[in-house]
Amino acid sequence: LEADPVAQRIIFYAAIGQVNSGVVNTANRLHQLKALQDGEKISEYLSCVRGMDGYGSIVFPHCGSDARRDGHVMPVVSFDSLRLQACKAGDGEPEDQVIEFAWETVTQFEVEETGTVFVFHYRRPGKPDRIVKIFSPFSVFLYECFEKIQEEIGWCKQLDNNPTA
Questions:
Q1: In which order are the strands placed within the sheet that holds 64-65?
Q2: What is the per-residue pLDDT across 3-60, written as a single tens digit (0 to 9) for each?
Q3: Distance between CA atoms of residues 155 and 42, nearest Å
Q4: How far apart are the first and last CA of the chain?
Q5: Confidence class of residue 164 from pLDDT cuts 50, 70 and 90?
Q6: Residues near 39 by Cβ (< 8 Å), separated by ≥ 6?
Q7: pLDDT-based confidence at 163, cuts 50/70/90?
Q8: Which helix (H) or strand (E) holds 64?
Q9: Mean pLDDT, residues 68-94 taken together
Q10: Residues near 160 by beta carbon (within 8 Å), at least 6 away in sequence
Q11: Residues 105-156: tens digit of each pLDDT
Q12: C-alpha torsion 134→136→139→145, nearest 10
């Protein structure tokens, strides 16, 4: 990455945007990040922010879901998991409830024919799989994110099984 300063700068400003919008949980290190926002400290800033929860996550706009009777969710897709952040239906104001699904529990996913409903199944210990529907105009993009993460998880498993490759 350091060989391409343009790519590094794009990732740097995207990371600043994620920190400023609250996607990245900076814990008690916000002051440290602010000190590193100088354009000369891009590598240090990226090194610091990469280890923080939420970095590299994609946060979708709030939308309806059958995971909640009242209110909406904001789907948050990261390499580690899918999170459904509860929020108010009207303005999308985040609430305290977050449901997290580890990728190994997701057994199926698809977009319904209308293209506005994303459906995934997840495994529950000792119970049948549960189906969750997310009603979003971004269902196809959500599906593509799931596909890409599944592909990358497969690559990681291949590397783990064949470390000399």
A1: 64-65, 127-135, 117-124, 106-111
A2: 788 998 899 999 888 888 778 888 888 888 888 887 788 989 998 998 888 888 898 9
A3: 29
A4: 22
A5: low
A6: 9
A7: low
A8: strand 64-65
A9: 90
A10: none
A11: 999 999 999 999 999 999 999 999 999 999 999 999 999 999 999 999 888 8
A12: -80
Report the C-alpha gap between 98 and 59 in whole angstroms: 13
The DSSP secondary-structure symbol of 25 reads B
Instruction: Quote the pLDDT of residue 27.
Output: 82
Helices (H), the chain: 5-21, 30-35, 42-50, 139-161
- Structure confidence at residue 104 (pLDDT): 94
Q: What are 63's strand-pairing partners?
A: 73
Q: Nearest 5°: phi and psi at 159?
A: -65, -40
How many Å apart are CA 15 and CA 82, to the nearest integer?
19
Taking each helix axis from N to C end, the angle separating 5-21 and 42-50, rounded to the nearest 10 degrees, works out to 50
CA dihedral 83, 89, 92, 94 (to 10 degrees): -50
For residue 87 the two structure tokens come to 């929020």
**Which stretches does DSSP call E strand in 66-149?**
72-77, 81-87, 94-102, 106-111, 117-124, 127-135
Q: What is the pLDDT of residue 165?
A: 54
